[in-house]
Amino acid sequence: MKKIDGTPKSLKQLLQNTKYTIHYYQREYRWQRKHIEELIDDLTSEFLENYQPHHQRDEVANYGSYFMGSIVLAGHENAIIDGQQRFSSLTLLLTYLNNRLRQLNKSYSMIEAMIFSEVYGKKSFNINVAERQACMTAIYENKLANFDVVNASESVKNLCARYNDIEEIFPPDITDDMLLYFCDWLVEKVFFIEIVASTEQDAHKIFVSMNDRGLSLTSTEMLKGYLLSEIKNDTLREKLNGVWKDEIFALKKFDDKGDEIFIKTWLRAQYAETIRQGRAGAVNEDFDIIGGPFHKWVRDNHANLKLNSSADYEQFLKNFSRFAKIYRQIRDAEDNFAAATKYVFYNAQLNFTLQPQVLLASVCPDDNDETVMQKINLAARFLDLWINTRITNGKSLDYSTVKNYIFNLTKDIRRLPVSDLKVVLKSHYAALNYDPVNALHKQLKLNKSTKKSIKNLLARITSFIEEQTKVTPNYVTYMEKQTKNPFEVEHIICDHFNWFKGTFADEDEFDRYRNSIGALLLLRKSINASLKDSLYDVKLDKYCSTDGNIYAASLGAQTYQNNPRLKKFIADNNLPFEPFDKFGKAEIQKRTDLVVQLVNLIWNAEEFNV
């Protein structure tokens, strides 16, 4: 092997006006939302530990650094052999920051040079992969909404999804006034060790040595080594090692880092007692430390975990196996709809990645399978109710916004018997003081940040009506995105205020009513596009066609004819369904009243009655 250089470099030194290639066999970008959440949380938490409101920008030079690990490069092409997932994700973050600064009429020219560079008037991205060019251009120009994701490769789909995730989860703690400070810290204080080999062959040898010869053990591997080293019996140790390996293999089927994600989730659910407070200067606590080198946290907290003897470590390893199996059940329920675990699936459709933590918290290691499923469904139902209160009140589900509440909920329900779990969850729900009339009439409005959650709300309502009228519920179809003709949120009133001046006092009132829940429904993309500027009477025919759905069709009088099941559903629940031959302010208010009553039917705390 020829000369190898390893040098610490800041993100700016690595990315500014520097091109990288990724060979065809390593081009897949695989990161999922959970990875981005943890990256954003780690970086912003580290920054906030240092930031003080009275600081000047030049004081960022004295802030602590953050180490991102190594990047292995080969040859003059700067081919990335190891590190492209992190580099690609950081490029997305830089692009988000650049777009947000432009919206604020601010600039940070260095960031642009870290995203792309220009030669002879031609721009190209610094991570130079041809299939990503169109996608990254759309992201950089803030036009991702117009980009065709359906026909894209898996890597491009992931890049688009992760950028959308960053927009959703970037914490409000980093305010507009702090944004340039954060940019300074990110580009100057986030470091990699750059390892450069003169040939690609040597770079691969380095990569193999780091990953296969124990020079860069993961937290999972180090935790296993620590736990097994405390088992005195050789035969038992070997048996438990086999169990561990089987579980890790099964967890990695969900994700290449599925083992690490599970262990962090399990430790936080069952054992973490403290969490970092969301303020500048606060220090990391159990929850946050587990998000990093969790093997060290277990070792440092072995006394609190009651790991005092070989038998204790044996039981801890058995608990690991038991909870890994339950976690896999939860993940399967998140990915695949089943009536028995429908709330787990519903919550997952909103990318609520903290759900497994809450569900695992309620479980005791010695619970039988029936009890485990009962607890999982109760905890998932509470999350469904809680998520609905946030959605309809126009509040965010961002990771950084809700993680402290979810952590406290986790501790409150930890290992409770079923009867006690019901009492605690009902108490938590009562404490929310949910007022659906105020939420749906005043708080909830369609905008960029609420679009996904409103689509979910409409899908739940429509699917519920279908279920109650003995029609196959189509929730999964309504939420499906990876299809050429998905369902979209449709405005019943087209976007032309001048056509409705006699109905609405001014343009602001028009916008409020037009974007309220009573003026929205779900429609196929192709139909939605064809009706863009149509008036209500033209739209109504399409709403009542076979391409529509029962909630949309309920606007038309013909839907109620020869439909005894719908009539019975309406009568049994005293619901104010009615058809409209015109649609304006009064009709929107009536339609919102209907949504209020449907929400009360769908989301209630009856499951928690003891």
Question: Key terms for this structure?
Answer:
single chain; alpha/beta; 3 domains; two-stranded parallel ribbon; 28 helices; 8% strand
Explain how this protein is built:
This protein has 610 residues and is an alpha/beta fold. The protein folds into 3 domains: 4-212, no CATH class; 219-433, no CATH class; 437-608, no CATH class. 54% of the residues lie in helices and 8% in strands. The protein is built from 28 helices and 10 strands. Strands 1-8-3-4 form a 4-stranded mixed beta sheet. A two-stranded parallel sheet has the order 2-7. Strand 3 and strand 4 form a beta hairpin. The mean pLDDT is 90.
Largest sheet: 4 strands, mixed
Q: What strand line-up does the widest sheet have?
A: 1-8-3-4
Mean pLDDT across the residues is 90
Number of domains: 3
What's a concise summary of this model?
The protein is 54% helix and 8% strand. The chain is of the alpha/beta class and 610 residues long. It folds into 3 domains: 4-212, no CATH class; 219-433, no CATH class; 437-608, no CATH class.
Helix and strand layout, with pairings?
Elements: E1 4-10, H1 11-15, E2 20-21, H2 33-50, E3 66-74, E4 79-82, H3 84-103, H4 109-115, E5 116-119, E6 122-125, E7 127-128, H5 133-140, H6 154-169, H7 179-189, E8 190-197, H8 200-212, H9 219-229, H10 234-251, H11 258-270, H12 286-290, H13 294-300, H14 310-335, H15 342-348, H16 355-361, H17 369-392, H18 399-413, H19 418-431, H20 436-443, H21 451-468, H22 475-479, E9 487-491, H23 507-514, E10 520-524, H24 525-530, H25 536-543, H26 550-553, H27 564-573, H28 585-602
Parallel strand pairs: 2-7, 3-8
Antiparallel strand pairs: 1-8, 3-4, 5-6, 9-10
Helix pairs in contact: 2-6, 3-4, 3-6, 9-13, 10-14, 11-16, 14-15, 15-17, 16-17, 16-18, 17-19, 20-28
